[in-house]
Amino acid sequence: MCCDNCHPIGFLLGLPFAILSFLISLVGVVVWIVGILLTIICPCCICVAAIVNLALELIKAPLHVIRWFTEQIPC
């Protein structure tokens, strides 16, 4: 029996890519911390806010990758 949201094959296929995107998200964490410090020092810089938003998307990357892989392969 298979449940509605069960996609084990997609999860297993996406796992190596999720690990790679996890490493990229670690870079996002560093960029986010530096960006937050820069916005505290100089809050008038709009480009720093854009960099912080990009870093947040990098941090969320492993979740996006796993969700995409599990949705692509039917149960």
Sketch the major β-sheet: none
Alpha-carbon distance between the termini? 10 Å
Helix content: over 70%
Helices, by number, come to: 3
Query: What's the number of extended β-strand segments?
Result: 0
**The number of domains:** 1
Beta-strand fraction estimate: under 5%
Low-confidence stretches: none
Topology as a string of helices (H) and strands (E)? HHH
Keywords: Membrane, Transmembrane, Transmembrane helix
InterPro entries: TAXIMIN_1/2
How does this model look, in words?
- It is a single chain.
- The protein has helices at residues 8-41, 46-59, 61-72.
- Helix 1 packs antiparallel against helix 2 (46-59) and helix 1 (8-41) packs antiparallel against helix 3 (61-72).
- The relative contact order is 0.24.
- The mean pLDDT is 79.
- The chain has one domain (8-72).
- It contains three helices and no strands.
- The chain is elongated.
- The chain is mainly alpha-helical and 75 residues long.
- The chain crosses the membrane at residues 12-32, 38-59.
- Keywords: Membrane, Transmembrane, Transmembrane helix.
Summarize the structure.
This protein has 75 residues and is mainly α. 80% of the residues lie in helices and 0% in strands.
Task: Annotate the secondary structure layout.
Blueprint: H1 8-41, H2 46-59, H3 61-72
Helix pairs in contact: 1-2, 1-3
Keywords:
single chain, 75 residues, mainly alpha, 80% helix, transmembrane, transmembrane helix, TAXIMIN_1/2
